[in-house]
Amino acid sequence: MGIRIWHQSFTVLQDLGAYDAALKAHFRRVARSDTEIVMHGMQPGTYRSNYPGEDIRHAGFQHLHSLQFLAAAVRAEDEGFDAYAISTLPDPGLREIRSLLRIPVVGYGESAMLTSCLLGSRFAVLVFINELTDLIADNARQYGLGERLVGVSDVGFRFTDVLSGFSNPAPLIERFRAAARAQIAAGAEVIIPGEAPLCVLLATHGISNVDGVPVLDSLSCWIKQAELLVDLKRTSGIERCQRGYFNEPPSRERLREVLGFYQLDRFGQQGA
After folding, report:
1. What is the rounded distance in angstroms from the CA atom of residue 228 to the CA atom of residue 35?
2. What does the sequence similarity comment in the record state about its family (predicted)?
3. pLDDT (tens digit, 9 = 90+) per residue, 198-255?
4. Among the four 107, 203, 216, 255, which has the fewest Cβ within 10 Å?
């Protein structure tokens, strides 16, 4: 029996042709043959340009934009998807979304950090949205992994550079290696290439280590964790805790009422 995963990006995928194509190719290579990853992005017009970083570097804007993730997650469960994947490093609304659904929910950042703990004792994250540094460090603490985080640092180039790098990757790869070596010198045993566009660029060109230190393919981490959680639920009946403030789902009827009241039910269909 196959698995269907709703992938949710923080970008408007239609605006990013090279990145969109690279994601699709990467998913085909990494996912099991019976896993279908259905790609979704933000609603067209969400941002002023094809670069979300100007908005999501602000905590308030990121929270507001995360409401699209929440509405999409509810739609994913309604449409019978087996898992929902937040495919962006900040994991917007991860805890809140999990509290609303029964299907497995995975976050890009959390999956990468958890997998890092299997590969080395301490990890570091490299980002091109420098303003996310505090948020990623705070997320690591929330996930109980703060002591294993060496640091979060700027990789030294930006989103537009990464998009250009799909046609000319060599200069960016060398700059990435230089930034990674600084974190390795500080004690990192695993490097997480932060945002998904950077991750897929490196993975596409086979960059899996720097000087013997693994460079994580964070996209693969959430794919494999989503597949694992679906398998556990199907074969053993094991699923996420359903008790307590952060876990117990509300009634579906009330959830639909609240989504409608805040007019969030109009989201979830866009960007497919």
Report:
1. 12
2. Belongs to the HyuE racemase family.
3. 999 999 999 999 999 999 999 999 999 999 999 999 999 999 999 999 999 999 999 9
4. 255
Query: How many angstroms separate the Cα of 67 from the Cα of each of 22, 43, 93, 165, 181?
Result: 26, 11, 8, 31, 37
> CA–CA separation, 83 vs 106, rounded Å?
8
Could you read off the pLDDT of 186-197 as tens digits, one per residue?
A: 999 999 999 999
Q: Is residue 157 part of a domain?
A: yes
Amino acid at 153: S
- The CATH number assigned to the domain holding 209 equals 3.40.50.12500
Rounded to whole angstroms, the Cα distance separating 94 from 73 reads: 10
231, part of any domain: no
Domain for residue 175, yes or no?
yes
- Give the C-alpha separation, 89 to 87, whole Å: 7
d(CA 31, CA 39): 13
What single letter denotes the amino acid at residue 263?
Q
Domain contains 266: no
Q: Could you identify the residue written with the tokens 């290696």? A: 177
Helices and strands (H and E) in the chain: how many: 11, 9
